[in-house]
Amino acid sequence: MDQFKITGKVGQGAHGYVMKGFNKFTGEQIAMKKLIVKNLDEGIPKNIMREITALKVLNHENIVEIIEVIPYGMGLLLVMEYLPSNLQEVSKNISLEPSKIKRYLKMLLDGVKFMHENHIMHRDLKPANLLISSEGLLKIGDFGLARIYAENEPEREYSHQVATRWYRAPELLYGSRNYTNSVDMWAVGCIAGELFNRSPLFPGETDIEQLAIVLHTLGTPTEESWPGLAQLPDYNKITFARSAGQNWLTVLPDCSHETLNFVKSLVVYDHRRRLTAKQAINHLYFSEKPAPCPLVDMPKEDQLKFASPRKDLDVICDEFDQIFKDF
After folding, report:
1. Which end of the chain is more exposed for a tag (fewer CB within 10 A), N or C?
2. Which segments of the protein form a coiled coil according to its record (predicted)?
3. Assigned domain for 97 exists
């Protein structure tokens, strides 16, 4: 613990808050996330174990690297590589050209593909959880809702209360517990649409409004377009006015045919028809011009100054200072 020095505050994740610092012996910048264990007698909570397990298993350039896990008091400190920004901040503060959007989506899909090949679904993909390194690399972070799954367990039940609302697949909104890693692919489609429009694709303020916006945009689903729809747990709890769906040229104006097809192939009601990460990487969208921007030309640290430490975390900073004094 003596090798680390805290220098500032970063933000909060799904299950803990994050500080930044550096290794005093190597000079390497690090991020430190404090995870609280409320009852030690009951052991380490599943969500914390999932995050640690996922990060230890997933060694990939587009996934955040975990450096060390340090037990402390009623919790754990996760030491990870420090990344100065995230895709939400970048897309809000920088006007991204199509080639840069394409590179970010390619990096995201490379990370998701590796994640799914290792039988881990993230379940909370969103721009704020896609971190950007000082070299411009996109890395998937915040695995607090991640879950290991097996391909041969199609009937296994999971919690449907996952994923941030704007990126939550419709089967989750209808209460399904028998979903697959395709919920991550729906989220990728929502992220792509948001990058093209610079605004969320389905910005609901409640779960019901979220579902209403999805149905209004994509059209009212049927048993033909979504087999098993009527069997979803919450299907009969609410009805919506019928919708023919919107024209995609209105949903994503100024986008090419292949760009529209790429997004449409991800935000599909029937999860079996959604592109997998491997299929998405090979979509014609990535082959048409412009080509994905070279990494060397992607936004770098000097362009990410807006990603300064978040406000209202002085108390957290003081607490981390006390942790280091205790050690």
Report:
1. C
2. none
3. yes
